[in-house]
């Protein structure tokens, strides 16, 4: 709970924090009022709407703290006399903090001369990627044109917006760091995100990206640690009350849910199957995320040879996520339901042709080109599925491996999958024009009904022959 305390001729809004070791309570300053004019603005006796704006800024800065504004206003009201009438806000609140930090950084950089000391060279080399990022950022800031003041970028005479912007990473900064990750420049992305989580306390999304980078580098223990931190920090960002139906739609819940999803994925890849299933229960029961839970459960059950459970989990949501049809197909084949396995795999393949080929073990000589976000999602689904099914694919039965490999190699199926890729590309080209022909065709081709019809024309594939033995239709 926040409250007001006098600090000389200033009034501070503070929160008491108990030290874990000593047990003593220390005051954490959340904001300081320097003048009577500023206090009156906070009390609503100045510019119209200023008091509401101040409350909003301070609460966004400290979403984990409860503010009893009635008591806070009463405490400020009772101590107005201690505040001076005026205060030099520009030199102190706007300039001083920036100048102090700039001076400290400049001093360290000046002293760390790599041409003078080997130890200085080591320090510079150790922080090379962070310094390269800062050099880019400085150039970016200096190249920014002067702005015309408006309601969107103006501050008030007390510089509240400038003073209360420090908790959250600016969107453009996060986008720049995320672009490094998306381009596969993991070393630079890791350096930038590590710097950001050190600069901004509670930056849950930064730890999520660090976890994703570690996952891409197959550093599973580090990834798990980062995702657990994402979850812990993300939970603190929640509003006081939130319904399950609002999860994911509320931006404040997203780091938490991303952390849970990625933790489940990483635990499965690490072979921690019981823990993965526990996270799946949390995703479904707490977050109402049945789709992700079903996918991960199906992967765990395939990895552990529980075919009926795998089929049931995948079939729960394959109407919402066609990628689950690929997982269901593997389980159905193991259960001897070959005809249904064929239709299920074909349904998934018509929606995710690249992923289907990857899961069937079909390797291409050259990396396929990706022309749209839909194709990128197809490719990423395949990569994720292959990694998620690491144990199953590693010991997949010979008959199963041969069946799905021969399926994607069949000339008729190859044509169907190539046509699926082509119609997606045509839709991508038509989309800016508003033309719907390719989109409508894509939707028809991807439907479950279309897969069933096409599977009926491919029944001869169920009579695969190997050494004179046949796979019977069930």
Instruction: Please indicate the percent range of residues in DSSP E strands (runs of 2 or more).
Output: 5-15%
Quick one: overall form? elongated
What structural category characterises the helix and strand content? Answer: mainly alpha
Number of helices: 24
Please give the oligomerization state of what you see: single chain
In total, the number of strands is 5
- Arithmetic mean of pLDDT: 89
* Rg from alpha-carbon coordinates: 29 Å
Could you give a short account of the major beta sheet?
3 strands, antiparallel
List low-confidence stretches: 465-474
Descriptive labels:
mainly alpha, single chain, 3-stranded antiparallel sheet, elongated, disordered C terminus
Word description of this protein:
With 474 residues, this protein is mainly alpha-helical. Among the domains are: 81 residues, no CATH class; 161 residues, no CATH class. 62% of the residues lie in helices and 6% in strands. It contains 24 helices and five strands. Strands 1-2-3 form a three-stranded antiparallel sheet. The protein has a two-stranded antiparallel sheet with strand order 4-5. It is elongated and about 90 Å long.
């Amino acid at each position: 709970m926040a409250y007001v305390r006098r600090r000389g001729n200033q009034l501070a809004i503070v929160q008491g924090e108990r030290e874990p070791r000593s047990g003593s309570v220390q005051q954490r300053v959340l904001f300081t009022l320097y003048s009577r004019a500023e206090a009156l603005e906070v009390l609503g006796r100045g510019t119209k709407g200023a008091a509401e704006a101040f409350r909003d800024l301070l609460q966004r800065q400290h979403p984990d703290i409860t503010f009893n504004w009635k008591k806070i206003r009463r405490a400020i009201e009772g101590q107005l006399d201690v505040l001076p009438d005026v205060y030099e806000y520009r030199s102190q609140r706007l300039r001083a903090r920036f100048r102090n930090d700039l001076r400290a950084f400049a001093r360290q950089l000046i002293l760390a001369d790599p041409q003078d000391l080997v130890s200085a060279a080591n320090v510079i080399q150790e922080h090379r990627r962070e310094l390269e990022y800062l050099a880019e950022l400085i150039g970016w800031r200096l190249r920014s044109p002067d702005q015309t003041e408006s309601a969107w970028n103006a501050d008030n005479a007390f510089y509240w917006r400038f003073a209360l912007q420090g908790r959250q990473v600016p969107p453009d900064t996060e986008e720049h760091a995320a672009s490094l990750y998306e381009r596969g420049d993991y070393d630079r992305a890791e350096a930038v995100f590590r710097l950001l989580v050190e600069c901004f306390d509670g930056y849950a999304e930064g730890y999520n990206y660090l976890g994703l980078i570690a996952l891409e580098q197959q550093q599973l223990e580090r990834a798990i640690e980062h995702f657990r931190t994402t979850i812990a920090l993300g939970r603190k960002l929640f509003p006081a009350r939130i319904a399950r139906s609002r999860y994911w739609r509320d931006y404040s819940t997203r780091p938490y849910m991303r952390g849970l999803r990625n933790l489940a994925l990483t635990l499965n890849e690490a072979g921690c199957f019981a823990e993965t299933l526990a996270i799946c229960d949390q995703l479904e029961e707490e977050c109402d995320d049945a789709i992700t839970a079903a996918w991960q459960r199906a992967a765990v059950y395939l990895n552990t040879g529980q075919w009926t459970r795998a089929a049931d989990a995948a079939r729960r949501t394959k109407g919402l996520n066609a990628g689950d049809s690929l997982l269901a197909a593997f389980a159905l084949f193991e259960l001897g339901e070959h005809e249904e396995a064929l239709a299920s795999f074909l349904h998934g393949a018509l929606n995710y042709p690249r992923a289907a080929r990857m899961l069937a073990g079909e390797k291409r000589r050259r990396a396929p080109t990706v022309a749209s976000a839909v194709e990128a999602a197809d490719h990423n689904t395949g990569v994720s599925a292959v990694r998620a099914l690491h144990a199953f694919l590693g010991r997949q039965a010979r008959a199963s491996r041969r069946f799905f490999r021969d399926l994607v190699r069949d000339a008729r199926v190859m044509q169907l999958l190539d046509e699926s890729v082509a119609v997606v590309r045509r839709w991508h080209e038509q989309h800016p024009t508003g033309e719907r022909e390719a989109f409508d065709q894509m939707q028809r081709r991807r439907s479950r009904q279309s897969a069933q019809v096409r599977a009926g024309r491919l029944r001869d594939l169920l009579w695969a022959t190997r050494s004179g033995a046949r796979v019977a239709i069930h």
